[in-house]
Structure to design on (270 residues):
């Protein structure tokens, strides 16, 4: 049986981080793109970041790309949404991190749900797979053709996590998907033919234990494809990108998920 899991209010939670990204903005192909380059400038191991619904300008994803670059990975964050990402201000009205979520009143929760239900569905229709996947595929092809590029990986978050999985059908050399949604389980995983790593939170509001079990089962049969699935304790959907750095446990989960991706690409893009 297939389980379809989609973007919910939990996906739109958490924090905008305050540090200043250090990369540059360039046009790659036809897309405005944030670039974080390693110290030696090598493009040999290139990684395409596929953002969540908040897009390429969210400071959090740029700061993460900066960290990947410090590990020797040449990073691209393209404006996949063509200037139509959900505004960062929208994030602040959504569900807070897990440690404060239970303190919300029923009225506040109802308001959040109403905001999501009127804003998110039209955006998802506008940026449906038939529109977004060709843009992503074209960008990956453009990166492959850049002189000095040897292997290409992709990391995706929430909305972008599913497209990272789809890219692992053969468009990239390795992929890392963080709390992917919307995701059809197990159908979306069956065609995976390239090394795939996944990071999930055990408090994800729409990837329940049954869905996680189906993901594990779908990957287990791929004995010829390197894969891993890590489930992080007490972490909600979106934790790898937008968790609360002020909490030790949440910060540790973010740090470990960051290293999960870096180590995966350093291994399979070499």
């Amino acid at each position: 049986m297939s389980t379809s899991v989609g973007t919910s209010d939990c996906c739109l939670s958490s924090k905008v981080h305050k540090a200043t990204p250090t990369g540059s903005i360039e046009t790659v192909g036809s897309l405005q793109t944030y670039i974080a380059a390693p110290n030696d400038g090598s493009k040999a191991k290139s990684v395409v970041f596929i953002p969540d619904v908040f897009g390429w300008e969210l400071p959090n994803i740029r700061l993460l790309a900066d960290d990947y670059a410090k590990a020797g990975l040449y990073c691209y964050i393209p404006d996949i949404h063509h200037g139509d990402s959900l505004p960062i201000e929208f994030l602040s009205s959504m569900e807070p991190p897990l440690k404060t979520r239970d303190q919300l009143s029923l009225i506040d929760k109802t308001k959040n749900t109403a905001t999501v239900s009127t804003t998110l569905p039209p955006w998802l229709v506008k940026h449906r797979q038939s529109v977004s996947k060709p843009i992503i595929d074209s960008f990956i092809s453009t990166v492959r053709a850049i002189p000095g590029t040897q292997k290409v990986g992709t990391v995706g978050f929430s909305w972008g996590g599913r497209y990272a999985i789809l890219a692992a059908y053969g468009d990239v050399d390795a992929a890392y998907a963080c709390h992917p949604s919307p995701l059809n389980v197990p159908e979306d995983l069956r065609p995976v033919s390239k090394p795939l790593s996944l990071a999930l939170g055990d408090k994800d509001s729409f990837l329940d234990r049954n869905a996680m079990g189906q993901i594990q089962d779908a990957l287990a049969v791929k004995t010829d494809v390197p894969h891993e699935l890590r489930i992080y304790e007490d972490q909600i959907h979106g934790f790898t990108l937008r968790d609360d750095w002020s909490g030790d446990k949440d910060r540790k989960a973010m740090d470990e998920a960051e290293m999960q991706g870096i180590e995966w690409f350093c291994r399979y893009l070499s």
